[in-house]
Design a protein that fits this description.
By secondary structure, the chain is of the alpha/beta class. The chain has 2 domains: 3-166 and 359-396, 2-Layer Sandwich (Nucleotidyltransferase, domain 5); 178-353, Nucleotidyltransferase, domain 5 (2-Layer Sandwich), CATH 3.30.420.40. 38% of the residues lie in helices and 19% in strands. The protein is built from 16 helices and 12 strands. The protein has helices at residues 44-54, 61-82, 111-114, 125-128, 138-145, 155-159, 169-176, 218-227, 239-242, 248-255, 258-261, 275-287, 292-314, 332-342, 360-374, 381-384; strands at residues 3-9, 16-24, 31-40, 91-102, 131-135, 149-151, 183-188, 191-197, 209-215, 321-325, 346-349, 394-396. Helix 10 packs across helix 13 and helix 13 (292-314) packs across helix 14 (332-342). It binds adenosine-5'-triphosphate and magnesium ion.
């Protein structure tokens, strides 16, 4: 039974989620047992540097190489620590740290205003190929841990003209689908993303869909950081937001933005819902005389309403139940607002379906690495927009593996 480590640090840049799992089965028989899960925060200086780079800070090539290796070192350390007290792992699947994500297509977010006018629109590379960049190179993780490592999962999907995201829906499909219920698995990380799982009959797997819904926690975290002068990094349980009142007029205004209207496939990141976006929200909130608590409630409502609106606009039918995962599933105010806005749809967490909501994304990258190892494609072309199902990830053997 393969023992695999999944590693990911998402758009929140809060730390590396590590999951050590035992995997059996490959598709509908897929089962994952979580032997250990932990989050390893980045050293403060490294976190700051990553956030600066994500916000557009310039780096020399030498600095880029150093940052790549510094992140790989942290990932390797997380892989070593998660194994303590367990038998050694056979394989690592490391998503790495996204520092740049430019989805395919000119009409998503900033891309519609930034196109070069030197070429006709349809000849610009961004019109037909996205660009996505994760740091923490897998070859170094393999060498430092002595364990075969799969990394750079998004590149092959992007090369096949996909968004490169989301990549978890095929894993979600085999872990959570039900013979009777239509469900959504809603991850609320820095960014929100869903997997829609129709009830399992007929060609159900071809009807699985998913996309990025917009901001998850990024804007909330930026607001808390701003209002506390950096002494707090997130709104614990959503308590601060719960003490405010959302400004519906602002939420409506924000929801009219292009990203929320565009039909899937679509993906996004801090490039759109990052610092510049938050600064605009802050200024608009001030114009409405919102208190910090009101702005937090309003930003929480943006996350909630963008999720619900995208279900209503783009799903074949509303789900009977939603299973939440990611750090945002621990934000009780957000969860309560989502349940309210979803009306009759049941809102639970993936914990209640037997899969840790804190480590579901890390678990998914362990499964994707396992599939890569077996030669099984990991993307769902309908989800990412890729022209075919492809093997995801580059495989790296440790230095002494061949000797
Ligand atoms: N108890 C809590 N109350 C409120 N928010 C929480 C709580 N615990 C975690 N969070 C939020 O969740 C965020 C981290 O979530 P998570 O690790 O799932 O995001 P991520 O790293 O962006 O992941 P990914 O992009 O892979 O989905 C934190 O930055 C914080 O905003
Ligand atoms: Mg995280």
């Amino acid at each position: 039974m393969p023992r695999v480590i999944g590693l990911i640090s998402g758009t929140s840049v809060d730390g590396i989620d590590a999951a050590l799992v035992e995997i059996t089965g490959t598709d509908i028989d897929l089962k994952v047992e979580l032997l250990a899960g932990a989050t390893y925060p980045y050293p403060e200086k490294l976190k700051e540097q990553i956030l600066e780079v994500c916000a557009g800070a310039a780096l020399s090539m030498a600095e880029l190489a150093e940052l790549d290796d510094a992140i790989a070192l942290q990932f390797a350390q997380a892989a070593r620590e998660i194994q303590i007290g367990h038998h050694p792992a056979d394989l690592i699947g490391s998503h790495g740290q996204t520092v740049y994500h430019r989805p395919k297509g000119l009409n998503v977010g900033k891309l519609n205003v930034e196109g070069s006018n030197l070429q006709p629109a349809n000849l610009q590379p961004s019109a037909f190929l996205g660009y996505t960049f994760q740091l923490g190179r897998g070859e170094l993780i393999a060498h430092l841990t002595g364990i075969k490592t799969v990394s750079n999962f998004r590149a092959a999907d992007v090369a096949a003209q996909g968004q490169g995201a989301p990549l978890v829906p095929k894993v979600d499909a085999y872990l959570f689908s039900s013979p009777t219920q239509h469900q959504c698995i809603q991850n609320i990380g820095g960014i929100g993303n869903l997997t829609y799982l129709p009830a399992r009959h007929g060609n159900w797997i071809d009807r699985v869909c998913g996309w990025d819904t917009g901001p998850g926690n990024t804007l909330l975290d930026l607001a808390v950081h701003h209002f506390t002068g950096g002494s707090q990094t997130y709104d614990q349980d959503g308590n601060w937001a719960a003490s405010g009142t959302p400004c519906d007029a602002l939420v409506e205004q924000w929801l009219s933005q292009d990203f929320f209207q565009i039909a899937p496939p679509k993906s996004t990141g801090r490039e759109l819902f990052g610092w510049d976006y938050f600064k605009q929200c802050l200024a608009q909130g001030e114009a409405y005389n919102l208190t910090p608590a009101d702005l937090l409630a309003t930003l929480t409502e943006l996350t909630v309403r963008s999720i619900v609106m995208s279900y209503q606009s783009f799903l074949p039918q509303m789900p009977q139940r939603v299973l939440l995962c990611g750090g945002g599933s621990r934000n009780l105010y957000l969860k309560q607002r989502l349940a309210y806005q979803l009306g009759s749809t049941q809102v639970l967490t993936t914990d209640e379906a037997g899969v840790s909501a804190d480590f579901k994304e890390a678990i998914a990258f362990a499964v994707l690495a396992h599939w890569r190892n077996l030669g099984i494609p990991g993307n769902l072309p309908k989800v990412t927009g890729a022209n075919s199902a492809v093997l995801l990830g580059n495989v790296y053997l440790p230095l002494d593996a061949g000797s």
